[in-house]
Amino acid sequence: MVEIEVKIRIIDIKNLGEKILQLGAKLEKERFYEENTLYDFPSKILYKKWQALRLRKINKKSFLTFKGPPQKSRKFKIREEYETEVKNEKQLKKILKSLGFIPVFNYEKHRTVYRKKSLEISLDETSIGNFIELEGKRGEIVKFAKALGVSKREFIKLDYIQLIKKESAKT
């Protein structure tokens, strides 16, 4: 599957949640905590190819996701993504280790998920600030962002790993 998304830095997360509902979106998942770990080989071959292998833990559920390299786009992050639920996280970690993968990056966030038709709207609270992530078709993303009063100039196509590393480099 190909994912198309953008992030937008936000200040007032509470009022934005209310505005999202006013624009016709429905609350899909109440605020929850997620823990993300990226895996790579010691040679960082996935990183060098702009690919990612992520293990995401939400409550007692775990998901393994492969993300391909980003496709060319000036305003949107577009990349192939394949995800599956993992029934036994401990066994998966043993498999990854046996294949030579090591954990290379961790990050956490709280997320609230809304949906308007096929557009997924996530409010993310991270260590580097709050963001809204819009995932869906380009036209839907632009239309919803405009309804929020956000221009394409404010679109961020970096992922959280890149944003966190960029923020860390400043300090």
Topology:
Elements: E1 2-10, H1 13-22, E2 26-40, H2 45-48, E3 52-58, E4 61-67, E5 77-86, H3 89-98, E6 102-116, E7 119-126, E8 129-135, H4 138-147, H5 160-170
Antiparallel strand pairs: 1-5, 1-8, 2-3, 2-6, 3-4, 4-5, 6-7, 7-8
Q: What do you see in this structure?
A:
The protein has 171 residues and is an alpha+beta fold. Helices cover 26% and strands 46% of the residues. The protein contains five helices and eight strands. It has helices at residues 13-22, 45-48, 89-98, 138-147, 160-170, and strands spanning 2-10, 26-40, 52-58, 61-67, 77-86, 102-116, 119-126, 129-135. The protein has an eight-stranded antiparallel barrel. Strand 7 (119-126) and strand 8 (129-135) form a beta hairpin. The longest helix is centred in the last third of the chain and has 11 residues, at 160-170. The chain is globular. The mean pLDDT is 95.
Unreliable spans are none
List the helices and strands in order: EHEHEEEHEEEHH
Bulk shape: globular
How would a textbook summarize the main sheet?
Answer: 8 strands, antiparallel, barrel
Assign the structural class, choosing from mainly alpha, mainly beta, alpha/beta, alpha+beta, or little secondary structure.
alpha+beta
Helical content (DSSP H or I, runs of 4+): 25-40%
**Quaternary structure type:** single chain
Roughly how many Å is the radius of gyration?
A: 16 Å
What is the number of helices? 5
Count of distinct strands: 8
Mean model confidence by pLDDT: 95
Major beta sheet, strand line-up:
1-5-4-3-2-6-7-8
Distance between the termini: 37 Å
Strand content: over 45%
